[in-house]
């Protein structure tokens, strides 16, 4: 992360690891960081929505999917 602070894919990859571990709070934070770098990064929007759904944040997840 320190070597590639502006690489959106690094944050998505780490977010996926967190997601697989069931740690959706940290996954969402990483997906959001990727979106700060590239607001149009569709994979980050989708994955953020998935983690939000699994966390019970249905309304927030729907916004990510739109």
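^ structure tokens above, recovered residues below v
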């Amino acid at each position: 992360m320190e070597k590639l602070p502006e690489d959106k894919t690094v944050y998505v990859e780490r977010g996926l690891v967190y997601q697989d571990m069931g740690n959706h709070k940290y996954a969402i934070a990483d997906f959001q960081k990727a979106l700060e770098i590239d607001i149009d990064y569709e994979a980050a929007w989708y994955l953020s929505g998935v983690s939000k759904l699994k966390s019970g944040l249905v309304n927030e997840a729907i916004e990510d999917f739109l």
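The chain has a mean pLDDT of 93.
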